[in-house]
User: Fold this.
Amino acid sequence: MSTKQLEKKEEKVEKRPSANSGAGSFSMPPVTIFENDDCVTVQADLPGVSKERVSLHCEQDTLTLEGELSVELNPGEETTALQAELRTPRFRRSFLIGNELDTQNIKAEMADGVLTIRIPKHPSARPHKIQIS
Amino acid sequence: MLTYFDTARGSLWRDFERFQKHLDLLTGKMSGSPLREMSPGGFPALNVTLSDQQVDVYLFAPGLDRETLDATLQDNLLTVSGERKLPLPDDVQVHRNERFQGRFRRVLSLPKDVTSEDIEANYRDGILHLKIPRQPKPQASRIKID
Assistant:
C-alpha cells in the first residue's frame, strides 16, 4: 500500500467530525502531510493541548492521534459565553499506515499546539541506486 | 421546528427570521461578523466568556509567528491580528494541506464597561488568551424615606 493511499483510506477509518459537544464526541484536527525520501511527516493543529495531554498510538496499521484541551470550554455558573466557536475539548484523527513505514521509530514533538509526527520509511523502501554489473 | 411556520399568527417572513436566528444560535454564530474582520476559513476559532469581573477571550491558533501577533483595544473594540507562515521544506511531496496559513484578523465588540488597564495576555500551547477586566459596577445606593 503506498502512502498516497493514506488519504483515501483514512476517510473510512476515522470517526465523523462532530458538530455538538457531548460526552465522547471529538473534532478532527486539520493536518498537513508531506513526505520526502526518508520519512512521512504529519503536522496537526491541536490548540490548547499540552504535551501531557496528547496520545499517539499505533495499532497494526492504524496510527491514531488524540488530544484534550487543558482549557475549560464550558463556562462556570457565573460566566456566560458570548461566543463559542470551539466546543469540543477533544481531538482525534486516525490514519492508515502503509507497510513501507517504520512505525517502531516514530518521532513526535509538540510545540505551541502543533503536533509534528515523523514516520521514517524502512530502508528498503527508500529510493536506492541499483548497481548494474 | 414546525412550530416556526405558524402562518395563522402573522407574517411568514417573521417566522423565517426567527428560524434563521435559532439556526444561527445552534451553529454558534451568535453575532454577525463585524465588517472589519478578516477571518478566512474561520481561523482562528474564537471563544469569549463573560463574568462580572472580566472578559476572557480565547483564540485557538497553534503555530503562530509570535512577532506577528498584535492585539489592540480601542474603547470596547478588540482587534487581534497575526500571521501563520507554515513553511514547508523544499523537495517534499505534499499529500494534504488543510491547515490555514496566512494573515488573519478578528474583531470583537466587548461590553462597554471593559477597561484597558491591567489586561493580561499570554500565548501558550497555541491558545492566545486575553483577560480584560471590567469596571466594577457602582453599588446601588439605598434611598432613605422619611
The two ends of chain B are 56 Å apart (CA to CA). Chain B touches chain A at residues 27-28, 30-31, 42, 44-52, 55-56, 58, 60-64, 86, 88-89, 91-100, 108, 123, 125-127, 129 (CB under 8 Å). Residues 121 and 130 of chain B are 4 Å apart (CA to CA). The longest helix of chain B spans residues 12-26.
